[in-house]
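[SOLVED] Need 3D model of a two-part complex

Original post:
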Amino acid sequence: VPVSSRQAFPLPSLPRKQPTVLVVCGPAQNGAIGLVCARHLRIFDYEPTIFYPKRSPDPLYRDFTTQCEKMDIPFLSYLPTEVQLINDAYNAVVDAVLGAEAEAGEGREPCAAILATLKHVRIPIVSLDVPSGWDVEAGSSGGISPDVLVSLSAPKQCARRFLGRQHFVAGRFLPYDVQKKFELNPPEYPGTECVVALRAPR
Amino acid sequence: DRDRCRPHRAMHGPSAGPGPRGLRFLGQEEAQAIDQELFTDYKFSVDQLMELAGLSCATAIAKAYPPSSFTTSQPAVLVVCGPGNNGGDGLVCARHLKMFGYEPTVYYPKRPNKPLFEGLTTQCQKMDIPFLPEFPAEAALIDELYGLVVDAIFGFSFKGAVREPFGSILGTLERITVPIASIDIPSGWDVEKGKADGLQPDMLISLTAPKKAAMHFAGRYHFLGGRFVPAALQEKYALNLPPYPETDCVLQLT
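Solution:
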């Protein structure tokens, strides 16, 4: 995800002087991936800030949190409901709230409030795997509209309804027999890249 | 003879090296201390860092020895894995080499009884990476079958005598003519002083930061990998790492 974020929003092109990115992490695996993404964004010289209101008790995910804290990545104690504050402070939002495993998650707090706010941000949103709040298969009606989608392993059906600027797949490391078994027909990854763009940027 | 053509390098001091200005070359204890801090303070898991390290190695190899550059009919690579973490890095590297279009084969004679290494072995096996039952008897056989050897035998914790079967393995590797890419430390070398009559790899992938042994490295390609060291840790140890290009996980030093 950080690699595809970087490809979609190269540092020199960011509108704000500081390369700030807000990473919003949900309570489960999608949120944990967001934490890893934030750490790598920091290594790539972005300035991520994390909002992670409901922390997973999973020891692995707790270690991801420690790694971010020790790298001086700030954790917000609340998400501003005044959307203009988010628009002004950050260049982009990484949506790591809900993934393919979420079912009733989007209806529960704090996800519902987060999604209500994200629906109104004017800065680009990069969604991990599934735009949060969308049905994994049917997509969304009136949910968030990400600018960039990074499908993990393989695109989900709802990706057919994705209308944003760039769709990346991060699935290079799936073993061949898994690819064949599920008839994934993945695209060719260039060189040693771990992500590939499925659509040319508009 | 290959070795006589190697450029000679001047050394500028006990911890500065011939690389980019200011880049520090670590002693063995320092390297171990940094590692410990990553696990104890930063709470990285061995799995996480090993995966990033192995990926760096495969990426560096792909940059220096692209599959099209092999003279063997397939881009065949022999990955020799030692009994510890360096061997684990090798297993991860082999898996990513397969993803990048190479045909790796692994030799892994001493396997730790730990889930981490068992998992990495399974991942390779499930990707149809063969594991040799025995080491090729002759250097000439390795030269014939493989275009590159990855040395993942011993790393920065290595001390003292080389135990079998690795003594014989290193003896054979010292006689091959195909290039060797060593992970972190050329195996058999003293981590600080090197080994004049030891392995002469063509490539070295230093992980995290180069160790002092790298000052004696005379091969063509020196890469830095393991792009996971937090800025605060870099400052604490004054690593003076040059910037990595963009989102690359490796940096070519020479």
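Edit: Residues 126 and 148 of chain A are 5 Å apart (CA to CA).
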